Amino acid sequence: DIPSQLDDLPPTMLKKDYANLPVINSVDDVVKRLLSLEMASQKEKMKIKTQQLVEKVRRSPNDNGSFEVQGNFSLLFTVAALTARIRMLEEHLHKHPKDKSNRRRMLMDVDRRRKLLGYLRRVRYNTFENTCQQLGIHYSPPPAYTRRVTKRWLVKKAFCIKV
């Protein structure tokens, strides 16, 4: 069985909306349990995991606008958010290998993250390396040139090798 990326979240941790309330310390244990991650949905757990990954790549506590945190589009499409979403979809696809629509979504997210990382690699290489290291991403650059293999090209190549 493959471990989940959400396994490192403690079940006693409170949900994102209720963690900073001052009243939470005086509440009954049953209410705290209801507001904890033990009773949370997958979506709420993913929000917390995404927030943790964003915190890893954030330059400073007040940093909301850097490329690694915000991205070119919106917070939803950041490198960290895409990484959390890709890992969640990978876990889902291990359990449900025939789910083609989620496989397509995962591949689209992988492509979007690859494009963002490629841009970050060209613009600021040190930040790119730090982001990949913090998020545990193994980036391999695309080949410099790829030629579409056709029958005519193969015959031409074979002819050139003979001569």
From TrEMBL:
The keyword ATP-binding does not apply. SMART domains: Ribosomal_S15 (SM01387). Coiled coil: none annotated. Signal peptide: none annotated. Keywords: Mitochondrion, Ribonucleoprotein, Ribosomal protein, Transit peptide. It is found in: Mitochondrion. Pfam families: Ribosomal_S15 (PF00312). One of its GO terms (biological process) is mitochondrial translation. InterPro entries: Ribosomal_uS15 (IPR000589), Ribosomal_uS15_bac-type (IPR005290), uS15_NS1_RNA-bd_sf (IPR009068), uS15_ribosomal (IPR052137). The keyword GTP-binding does not apply. GO terms for cellular component: mitochondrial small ribosomal subunit. It comes from the Eukaryota. One of its GO terms (molecular function) is structural constituent of ribosome. Belongs to the universal ribosomal protein uS15 family. This is Small ribosomal subunit protein uS15m. It comes from Neodrepanis coruscans.
